[in-house]
Amino acid sequence: MEHRIRVLVAKPGLDGHDRGAKIVARALRDAGMEVIYTGLHQTAEMIVESAIQEDVDVIGLSLLSGAHMTLFIDVADLLKKKKISDVIVIGGGIIPKKDVPKLKRAGISGVFGPGTPCEDIVDFIQKNVKR
Amino acid sequence: MNEISSKVLKGDSRSIARLITLSENNDPKAKMIMKDIHPYTGNAHVIGITGVMGSGKSTLISELSRAYREQGKTIGIIAIDPTSPFSGGALLGDRIRMMELTMDKGVFIRSLGTRGMLGGLASSVYDVVEIFDASGKDIIFVETVGVGQAEVDIIKIADTTLVIIVPGLGDSIQTLKAGIMEIADIYVVNKADRDGVEQTVAEVQSLVDIVCSDKERKTPIIQTISKESKGITELINEIEKHKNFLIETKELQKNRRVRYESELVEIIRKRLMNLIFDESKFKDKVELLINKISQKEIDPYSAADEIIGKILK
Fold first, then answer.
1. Which one of A4, A48, A121 would you mutate to disrupt binding with B, by most B Cβ within 10 Å of its Cβ?
2. B175 in the same domain as B84
3. B144 lies in the same domain as B220
4. Under an 8 A CB cutoff, do B91 and A25 touch?
5. B32 is a domain residue
6. Residues B148 and B277 in one domain
7. Which whole number is the average pLDDT over A2-24?
8. Is it the case that residue B175 has pLDDT exceeding 60?
9. What is the pairing mode between strands A34-42 and A58-63?
10. How far apart are CA B13 and CA B30, in angstroms?
11. Considering the domain boundaries, does residue B166 fall inside one?
């Protein structure tokens, strides 16, 4: 019996820049994880519903538009509302340092800005998954 | 009955999703639940969709699902993509083309990595079909990985198999003759707005004329343009016709028997492989034998005899 870590990678909102998300998705795959890539323009409801059906351990959000304080937190709130406690949420993109503590308090357990080595994200996931 | 079992039978999404994970991970808990739900299976129509990479399988499933939802039918979709043989990871991207189905409560989509299984399927696919079936889904789509010539295992699991072809492959259809071109219950020529569609249809037709010359049912060829929703109604009519044909000719029971047979073979294969290569009792012995084979102290056949002899003891 072996549990393979499953990660949903999603781009919420209207931002259409997905190169970063695709590079991270590829790096997680190369680290032995199963990555479900859902593509652009996802709402928080779509992301959480996909996460339920795919039974993922991690939701990875990518956003470069500046709307992370709304959209990332919406996803974390919806998970809480649905009483889903074994999925961690991480986020990346153009995120000012001052926003990071607030995001963490809201339930985004890992925040990764530009220049983060992919290994850091892999490490974080491996250490923090809840199953 | 196990709590998850009864929730799965009621169609609870989170229980369905969790049970699929247990099955994929070969968790012993899955075995008990699969036992509970087996009596409640056999009602869903399983539609296999196969074709080369980029032929439009996911988009076609999305369109078919939308049409079936208008008839009030509920749907389970199994979307399979390859697992990397090096890292064991996988990039599962079929949901991208099915985005509009995400919020529909009557549709459940699950992406699977092949996890070492050849033939275009995933090793847990039989379980996932049973789980969707027991949870009350009317239609189950199984999308294979993008196939080449020999990935034909889909026929063991599907009631109706659609082979998707796109114009522009030209003469390569000739080379497909022996492989996936033999397994279709319905041919779909997708992206039929492309140049060369007449030639493609003619080539498939000439193949059908040869293969089906002595058969009661001639494999139909349907042209579709998924992104414009063209040909979808015609395709659904053909699927329904095939389903009725299966029932009238009692082929359906035969098909299902083939499915259970290959499921049984797959379960036994998994268990034996696990016994030989993962359990500590045999693992050291196996390692030792492999070393001996490399050093030409023993040949592979005699090594296999030794291992099988040990199991039978």
1. A4
2. yes
3. yes
4. yes
5. no
6. no
7. 90
8. no
9. unpaired
10. 16
11. yes
Which structure tokens are listed for B278? 């993962």
Q: What are phi and psi of B161, to 5 degrees?
A: -110, 125
Domain that holds residue B122: 41-250
What is the total residue count of chain B? Answer: 313
- Supply the CATH number for residue B211's domain: 3.40.50.300
Cα–Cα distance between A13 and A77 in angstroms, integer?
16
Lowest mean pLDDT among B12-26, B148-162, B248-262, B297-311: B148-162
Q: Which helix (H) or strand (E) holds A28?
A: helix A19-30
Residues B176 and B125 both lie in one domain = yes
- Tell me, what's the ipTM? 0.93
For residue B179, pLDDT beyond 90: no
B20 near A CB under 8 A: yes
* pLDDT tens digits, B61-101: 999 999 999 999 999 999 999 999 899 999 999 999 998 89
Among residues 25-84 of chain A, which lie with CB inside 8 Å of chain B?
25-26, 28-39, 41-42, 45-46, 49-50, 52-55
Distance from the Cα of B121 to chain A's closest Cα (Å) equals 16
Within this chain, do residues B185 and B299 fall inside the same structural domain, yes or no?
Answer: no
Q: Does domain A6-126 sit in CATH 3.40.50.280?
A: yes
Chain A positions touching B21 (Cβ under 8 A) are 3, 6, 55
Q: Tell me the domain boundaries of chain A.
A: 6-126
**Is B103 close to A49, i.e. CB distance below 8 A?**
yes
Residues B73 and B206 occupy one common structural domain: yes
Q: Does B14 touch chain A (CB under 8 A)?
A: yes
Shortest CA distance to B186 belongs to which of B200, B172, B165?
Answer: B165
* Tens-place pLDDT, residues B259-293: 999 999 989 988 888 888 877 778 888 899 999 99
Specify the pLDDT at position B176: 58
Task: Specify the pTM.
Answer: 0.92
Residue A5's nearest CA partner among A28, A37, A27 is A28
- B72 part of a folded domain: yes
In a domain, B11, yes or no: no
